[in-house]
Amino acid sequence: MLYFIEVVLPLAVAKTFTYQVSEAEFDFVQIGMRVAVPFGKTKIYTALIVGKHNTPPQLYQPKEIHQILDEKPIVNELQIQHWNWVADYYMCTIGDVFKAAVPSGFILESETQLLPKEVENLPDHQLKDDEYLILEALRHQSSITLQEVVKILGKKTVIPTINSLLSKGAIALHEEMTEQYKPKLVRYIKLHVIYHQQEHLVELLEILSRAPKQRELVLHYFQLHVRERKPIAVKELIESSGASIAVIKALIDKDVFEEYYIHEDRVQFEKKEDASFELSLAQAAAFSAIEKGFQQQNVMLLHGVTASGKTEIYIKLIEQFLKEEQQQVLFLLPEIALTAQLVQRLTAYFGNQIAVFHSKYSNNERIEVWNNLLQNSENARVVIGVRSALFLPFSDLGLIVVDEEHEQTFKQKDPAPRYHARDAAVVLAKLHNAKVLLGSATPSLESYYNVKTGKYGLVELKERYGNVVLPEIQLIDLKDKYFRKRMTGHFSDVLLENIKETVHNGEQVILFQNRRGFSPYVECLTCGHVPHCPNCDVSLTYYKYKNQLKCHYCGYNIANPTHCHSCNSLDLNAKGFGTEQIEQELVRLFPDKKIGRMDQDTTRGKFGFEKIIDSFKNREFDILVGTQMLAKGLDFDNVTLVGILNADNLLNQPDFRAYERAFQLLTQVSGRAGRKEKKGKVLIQTYNPYHNTIQQVVNNDYAAMFQEQLYERKNFKYPPFYRIIRLTLKHKDYDKLKEGSLWMYNVLKQHLNIPVLGPEEPMVSKIRNEYLRTILVKIPAENHLGKTKKTIQKILNSFEAVSHYRSIKVSANVDYY
Ligand code: ADP
Ligand code: ZN
Ligand code: ZN
C-alpha cells in the first residue's frame, strides 16, 4: 500500500499538494503537523498537513517529504475549518490564510533570510556542530537564506537546526521587529497624605523653619499644586522653584514628599487602590441584558455612547466566562497602538491570564503565545489582539469581544486574505459554539442592520459613566467667519477663545484635522500646474518643515520647487491644509503652550503612537493636533475641548460610506471631550452647518443617520442590500490593462445576471508605476453568494488562461470596504 499526505503550502496556490510518506511516517503524522517539503526544482517549504490517504495524485508524480517537523499538531482542526471558510468566502487560497495565520518562524522556507543576533552567555560548547557552522557563516555575512544553509550543511533537513538557533535567540528572521515598548516613566512628586490635613501641615512648616530652603520648597509646591491642579513632575518643580535636587531628596528622606512614577502609579493617581470596581446601575442593567440576550442570540451588539464604560462591561463579562465556563476569551481591537491603554486596564484586572498578540511582537513572543494557547495554558486565558489573533489555536473559545466594531481597520486590504475580522470572528465563534459581543458608540450600518433584522441582539447604554454629560457640540459656520474676517489662519475667533480659556484652566485640547502634512498640494497660480508623483497618480504633499514635496503612496520626494515646472512662473501657492500647518499656526498663536502632533508622520517610529499618547496623558502637552488616529477609543481624563478644523473634507469623499464614516469619526472625536467630571465642549468648523450628517452628529442622532444612510444604500445598491466584490487589475502597460479589464468586464456581464460596474480608473489610478482598473460586482443579498463567487472564480481562471493577459495581476476583495 502507498501512503500520502495532503499539505497546504504558504503560497497563493489554490490547491493542496500530495506528498508521499513511508508507512512509519504515515502512522506518526497527524493533521495539523508541519513537514518540510521540496517544491519546484530546488525550493524547500514548510507545509501543513491537512489530510492523510492512500490515493496517488492523478496528474503528477508525488515527491517525498524531507522531514516531519512536529511531534504534535501545532494547528487544530477547528482552525483548519475556519481557514477554509476564510479562503472560500474571501476568494483566496488556504495557503494565503496559512501564511497570514502563523508566526513567520513557523513557516521557514528557502528564501527566508536569517540574521545574526548578539547574545550574551551563549558559550560555543552549547551549540551543536551544525548550529556552530551556521553562526560561523553569519559572522562573515550580514544575512543568509535558508537555501544557503542547505548548501553550508550539505543536507536538506535544516529546519530543526534553524528553529533551535531561533529559540536560543542566536539568530533572527529578517521580517521580525524585536523592539519592545517600554513606557516612558516620568518621575512625579507629591506631598505625603498626612500633610493634607491643615494641622499637620502647620506643624511641618514650623519644624522646617530651621531648614528654610526646604520650607520654601514645600510652600512653592503648594502654590504650584493649587495653580496647576495636576500632578507635578520633579523636573517641573526644580525648574519653577530653582531648588536643587538635594533639597528635594532631603524632603523625600524625611517622608514629607513621596516620589512616584506615573506609569506604575496610574491607578493610584486616579485614586483607585486596586483594579476592582462596581458597575453603575446603567452598566449593570446593560450587563444583564447582554447575559440574557446570549440565551437566545450568539451575537450581541452593545451600542454605548462614548465614555459609557463599555470596557468595564467587557471586563465583567470576560471575568464571568473565565470563572463559570472556564473557557478562553478573545478580545479583538482595531489597532494595536490602542492596546497600550487597554492592555493596562485589562492586565490590572486579570493579571497574567492575559496574552497579547500583535504584529510588533517578535517571532519568539508570538510563538510563545501560540504555544500557550495550544496547551490551553493559564497564561493565555484571555487573548488581546488585532485581527490576525483570530487565527490562533483556540481550543475552547467561549467569548469573542470585538471592540470598536465599526472600525474599517478590521478589514484587511492587502495582501490576501482580505478578510473582515468582525465577520470572520462571528464564524469562528460558531465553530466553537461561542458568543460574540460587538461594541461601539457608532455601530457600523451592517451590524445595526443585522440587529434590525433580528440576526443580532441589541443592548443600549445611553449615559456616560459617573453622571458625566455628553459634550455640547457647537457648529461654526466658516463661510460666515471668513466673510466677516473673523479667522486667524484656520482658526475662527470662537475656537481660539475656547482654546485660550481651556488651556488657561489647566485643561487640555484636542484638535482634529483629517490630513497630514503642511498642505496637501502646491498649485501654480499662473497655469494651474500641480506637481504630481511620477510613479503614482497623486499630487505631492507639501511639508514645510523639510521644505519638501512628498508622495504618500511611494515616498517619492523632491525639494519644494521655487518656480513652476510647467511654465516657470514664480507664483506658487500651497492649497488646503494639514496637521503640520495647524501645529505651526498654534505655535505662533500660543508661544508659551506645549503643542503635540499625532499623525502617521510623527508616529512612524516603532512606538511613536504610544509615546505621544503617554506624554499627552502625562499632561506634557496642552494641545494635541491629529488625524483620525485621535478618534480611536482613547481615554484622556483632562481633555475638555475638542475642535474640528474642517468637517467638510470628511463629507466630500468619493465613497458610499463617506457619510457614515464622517458621522462615526466626528462622534468619536467628540467623544474624547469631557470624559471625567468636567463637561466637555466640541466645536466643529464647517462650510455646511445644515448638512444632514453634521446635524445628526450635533444631535447625537444615530437613528437618523442609520435611517438616511440605509435608504441611500438601498437606492444605490450597496451593502447591506447588496454584497460587493471589487476586482482590481494591475499592470505596467496601460493599453494592455485597458484591454484586459474590458475583456473581464464583458465576460462577467455575460455570465452574471447582476450589476457589474466598470472597468473604472480608481481615484489613485497608478501606484509604483503600475496602472490600476477596478470592476465592481454587486450581488443582491438574496442571491446565492457561493454560486456567484464560483462563477466569478471560473472567469478569473479563464482570464489567466489567456496567455496575453496572464501578466495582469487580479485580486478580489469580497465585501469591499
Ligand atoms: P467607553 O469605552 O465606553 O468609551 P470607558 O470604558 O473608556 O468608556 O470608560 C470611560 C471612563 O469611565 C474610563 O476612565 C473608566 O475607567 C471610567 N469608568 C467606567 N465605568 C466605570 C466603573 N464602573 N467604575 C469606575 N470607573 C469607571
Ligand atoms: Zn508615488
Ligand atoms: Zn505654471
UniProtKB/TrEMBL annotation:
<keyword id="KW-0067">ATP-binding</keyword>
<keyword id="KW-0639">Primosome</keyword>
<dbReference type="InterPro" id="IPR041222">
    <property type="entry name" value="PriA_3primeBD"/>
</dbReference>
<keyword id="KW-0347">Helicase</keyword>
<keyword id="KW-0479">Metal-binding</keyword>
<dbReference type="GO" id="GO:0006270">
    <property type="term" value="P:DNA replication initiation"/>
</dbReference>
<keyword id="KW-0235">DNA replication</keyword>
<feature type="binding site">
    <location>
        <position position="567"/>
    </location>
    <ligand>
        <name>Zn(2+) 1</name>
    </ligand>
</feature>
<feature type="domain" description="Helicase ATP-binding">
    <location>
        <begin position="291"/>
        <end position="461"/>
    </location>
</feature>
<comment type="subunit">
    <text>Component of the replication restart primosome.</text>
</comment>
<keyword id="KW-0378">Hydrolase</keyword>
<dbReference type="Pfam" id="PF17764">
    <property type="entry name" value="PriA_3primeBD"/>
</dbReference>
<dbReference type="Pfam" id="PF18074">
    <property type="entry name" value="PriA_C"/>
</dbReference>
<dbReference type="GO" id="GO:1990077">
    <property type="term" value="C:primosome complex"/>
</dbReference>
<feature type="binding site">
    <location>
        <position position="533"/>
    </location>
    <ligand>
        <name>Zn(2+) 2</name>
    </ligand>
</feature>
<dbReference type="InterPro" id="IPR042115">
    <property type="entry name" value="PriA_3primeBD_sf"/>
</dbReference>
<keyword id="KW-0862">Zinc</keyword>
<dbReference type="GO" id="GO:0005524">
    <property type="term" value="F:ATP binding"/>
</dbReference>
<protein>
    <recommendedName>
        <fullName>Replication restart protein PriA</fullName>
        <ecNumber>5.6.2.4</ecNumber>
    </recommendedName>
</protein>
<feature type="binding site">
    <location>
        <position position="551"/>
    </location>
    <ligand>
        <name>Zn(2+) 2</name>
    </ligand>
</feature>
<dbReference type="GO" id="GO:0006269">
    <property type="term" value="P:DNA replication, synthesis of primer"/>
</dbReference>
<feature type="binding site">
    <location>
        <position position="536"/>
    </location>
    <ligand>
        <name>Zn(2+) 2</name>
    </ligand>
</feature>
<dbReference type="InterPro" id="IPR040498">
    <property type="entry name" value="PriA_CRR"/>
</dbReference>
<comment type="similarity">
    <text>Belongs to the helicase family. PriA subfamily.</text>
</comment>
<dbReference type="InterPro" id="IPR005259">
    <property type="entry name" value="PriA"/>
</dbReference>
<dbReference type="Pfam" id="PF00271">
    <property type="entry name" value="Helicase_C"/>
</dbReference>
<comment type="function">
    <text>Initiates the restart of stalled replication forks, which reloads the replicative helicase on sites other than the origin of replication. Recognizes and binds to abandoned replication forks and remodels them to uncover a helicase loading site. Promotes assembly of the primosome at these replication forks.</text>
</comment>
<dbReference type="GO" id="GO:0016887">
    <property type="term" value="F:ATP hydrolysis activity"/>
</dbReference>
<dbReference type="GO" id="GO:0003677">
    <property type="term" value="F:DNA binding"/>
</dbReference>
<dbReference type="Pfam" id="PF18319">
    <property type="entry name" value="Zn_ribbon_PriA"/>
</dbReference>
<feature type="binding site">
    <location>
        <position position="554"/>
    </location>
    <ligand>
        <name>Zn(2+) 2</name>
    </ligand>
</feature>
<keyword id="KW-0238">DNA-binding</keyword>
<dbReference type="Pfam" id="PF00270">
    <property type="entry name" value="DEAD"/>
</dbReference>
<dbReference type="InterPro" id="IPR001650">
    <property type="entry name" value="Helicase_C-like"/>
</dbReference>
<dbReference type="GO" id="GO:0043138">
    <property type="term" value="F:3'-5' DNA helicase activity"/>
</dbReference>
<keyword id="KW-0547">Nucleotide-binding</keyword>
<feature type="domain" description="Helicase C-terminal">
    <location>
        <begin position="537"/>
        <end position="714"/>
    </location>
</feature>
<dbReference type="InterPro" id="IPR041236">
    <property type="entry name" value="PriA_C"/>
</dbReference>
<dbReference type="InterPro" id="IPR027417">
    <property type="entry name" value="P-loop_NTPase"/>
</dbReference>
<feature type="binding site">
    <location>
        <position position="564"/>
    </location>
    <ligand>
        <name>Zn(2+) 1</name>
    </ligand>
</feature>
<dbReference type="InterPro" id="IPR011545">
    <property type="entry name" value="DEAD/DEAH_box_helicase_dom"/>
</dbReference>
<feature type="binding site">
    <location>
        <position position="527"/>
    </location>
    <ligand>
        <name>Zn(2+) 1</name>
    </ligand>
</feature>
